[in-house]
Amino acid sequence: MVVYTLEQRWEILRHYFENHGNVAEFVRKLRTDFGRNEAPSAPYVRYLVKKVKETGILIDKPTREKPKTVRTPENIAAVAESVRETPSTSVHRRSQQLDISETSLRRILRKDLCMTPYKIQLVQELKPTDHPMRFRFAKWACDRLAEDADFAKKIIFSDEAHFDLVGYVNKQNCRIWGTENPHAFTEKPIHPKRVTVWCGFWSRGIIGPFFFENEQGAAVTVNGDRYRAMLNEFLFKEIENEDIGDIWFQQDGATCHTADSTLDVLRPVFENRIISRRTDVVWPPRSCDLTPLDYYLWGAVKDKCYADKPETIDALKDNIREAIGEIQLHTIVSA
Asked: What is the CATH class of 130-334?
C-alpha cells in the first residue's frame, strides 16, 4: 500500500479541485505525475476529500503502540526461570503457577524465548558395553554403503511383535477435553489375549505377517523349534522365487534366533550374509532404533489395526493383515 506524503496529498487535492471534483478524470491525469502503479485510486481520493471536509486535517494521527501488559521483562524472566527448573511442566499447569494466561504464556515461550515443545522419545536403555558394538556395526554398514549405495535395499530386516486384543492407546493422539480432569485411564488385563506376529521387511515389500499360534489359533511362545519351522515353512517359501544371491538377513540376538540349529537352517540360504548374534556381522543388542520394523512398521500397523476396536482374535488378525497390505512399496523403500 502506497503511503503519500503531506506534499503529495496537497497535490492530489489541488488536482481534485482543478477538475471540479471529477475524480475519474483527474485520477487519469495523476498517473502522469505519480506513475501508473503509484497513482492514487478513486476510493482513496474520495477518502482524502472527506477527511479534509470533516476534520480539516490532511495528516494521519500517529499510532501508538499498545504497551505490553503481560509480556514484560519481569514475566519473561519468570517464565524462563520456570522452564529451566521444570521443563516438562505443561503450559496449562505453568500458566496457573505463574498467573499468566495460556495464550500470553505461549507467546512468551515462542516469540520472546524462542522455545519449541519437543515430544519425548521412548528408547531402549543402553548398557556401557553396547556403545562400542553399535559403533562397530555402524562403521561396517557405512563402509558397505560407501561401496554400494543400494546396500540397505539388500537386507531383509525381521522381527516379532505382540498385539494385545485389549488394544493399543496412541497417547500422542488421545486427549480428553472437559472443564475438570476426568481422571480417565485404560485398564489392561495382566494376561491379555494376544497374537504374536513375525514380519520380514525389505525393499521388495513386506514378508508376512506370520502368526505364531497352535492348531487352535492361540498365540504361543516363540521358541527355537517354532522359529525354525517358520523359516522353513514360511520365509523360505516366500522368497524361493527371488534372486537372493546378494541379500542379507537380519534378526536380533534372541536365543531362539541364534541357536546352532537355527543358524544351521539359515546358512544354506544366506551363507555368511547373516546379521545377528554369533555371526560374522554382529547385530548390536538393544538396537530397536536401527530396524525399520521397530521404528516404523509396528507402530504404523498398531495405529491402524485398533481403529475399529476389534473384539476377537480373528478380527485383530484380519486388521493386521489389512494394515500391512495397505502399505505402499514406496513407503517401504523410504522407511
From this structure: alpha beta
